[in-house]
Write a structure and sequence with these properties.
alpha+beta; 6-stranded antiparallel β-sheet; 16 helices; elongated
Amino acid sequence: MSTRSNQPNQRCHAVGTARLRRGSVLLVVLVAVALLSLGAYAFSESMISEYESTTMYGRAAQARVYAESGIEKAALVVGDRVTYPSEMLYHEPALFQNMLMRDSEEARGRGRFSLVAPVESIDASVPLRFGLIDEGSKLNVNTILSYELEDEAMYSEMLMYLPEMTYELADAILDYIDEDFEPREFGVEDDLSSDPPIPAKNAPLETLDELLLVPGVDSWLLYGEDTNRNGLLDLNEDDGDLTPPFDNGDGVLQLGWSQFLTVTSREINLMADGTERINVNNSTLTDLYDELELELGTEYADFVVAFRMNGPIPEEIPEEEENPQGGSGGTVGSSTNQEEQALQNAAAAVAGAVAGGGDAAVTRGGMDLSGGGSVTIESLYELIGSAVEVEIEGELTLIESPWTADPGDMQSYLPTMMDLLTTVDDPYIEGRININQTRFEVIRGLPGMTDGLADSIVRMQLIGSNGEPLSDAMTERATTGWLVTQGLVDISMMRDLDKYITARGDVYRVQSVGYFDEGGPTVRMEAIIDGTEYPPRIVYMRELDLKEVGKGYTYQQLSFGAVE
């Protein structure tokens, strides 16, 4: 009886256990499905992140290529001096602003580059232009010591008008790059305060950043308040929070030395079409005469060769007006001392032997050239407005320069004269300053320069209030002769300044920005292009680290610009 009565209970217990087991399996399945779903979601999120990261990396690589393309475009333009005159390189939106590199139906996919530079003019109402920076507009540190100056202190004076410059810093810079190991009056050869000590380089600088190794020079002096290197005054760059005098909250961008100095400026010593110039100091006077006669005619050949043989007739200078610049007072081109005269006579003897073949007379234009040249022309401006006496067919004859000192005539002939002639055989002319784009601080330290003249040069540069060059008047500024034609200096002073100044360099700095129309990565690159070689050579290129210097420019500035 008891056995039978327990059977229904056992069956009920078995049924309950079975149901419990089926519920456990369902729970395990639900947990497993949930875990798998979470795993799939995490995997999807990871894949999406990887996809977006890869996409952004690819877009950044594209932006970098766009920026590099901008640099290549700049090199192409620099290499064609005939098609692209210097004013087009300064600011030309059609060539350098918002250039489309990749088209797309979606704005987000359109890629571009812009070449951006600050406006150097003190009267410009806008700070931004689209073009290149002529390194010739800056003072070349490496060429300062190449000038033959009368006083050792004059070398330091060339640096003294830079912001926050002192005689100690100027001498320390020159000690760092000069060849000797003797410190200057206020300088120092080796930085003994550093651990380990930093020795002077005693050689030319390769980059401006090397100045940071000079005792007393820091990044504030080199870069000023412009922490993001864009040449513009940004909100966080003049808030007065950092060490004065750089971040002083005065509302004016305090520039560092990098805006005034360079180590790469030079100009090519060829004609605009790439052919060789005529060297007026050619030791073989017969060759010089023939070249000049072919290009310019007999009148010019007679005068230049006669000038080389005898030098100009000394100008009579009133006693109270002698040596206005503290010079020797002698005529440019004549010998300054007995040693120089002896060297010239020796050179003349050698040249005479070459030109005349011994004692035999060699003539051109009735002049006996067998004696060779005794005068070296230091500046082509010596040939302007001067006169020379020479024997022609045995009779002493006065020849006046066919290049007159009349300002109207000078505007007409100077571009051709300066393009055709040169005073040296060197393929390059190093370190002359482009007065059409330079700043006051750069040229004020030049020997013979004054505050008034430096200020006039800067204020008369043909740069409009919008920052664009006034191209309709640029022809007369194709040479440095505009200083004479505009009445800023006379011919005598122009001859002294000529060794320091030019109207165009051939080495350019470019800042190229690659970007997209609507958002996306931006890449900013800086390069230096040497146009003295063909094809132009990119001698320096680096990508500016956005983490350190930031984007520098907004999309609106790059696309629409600050210059209209």
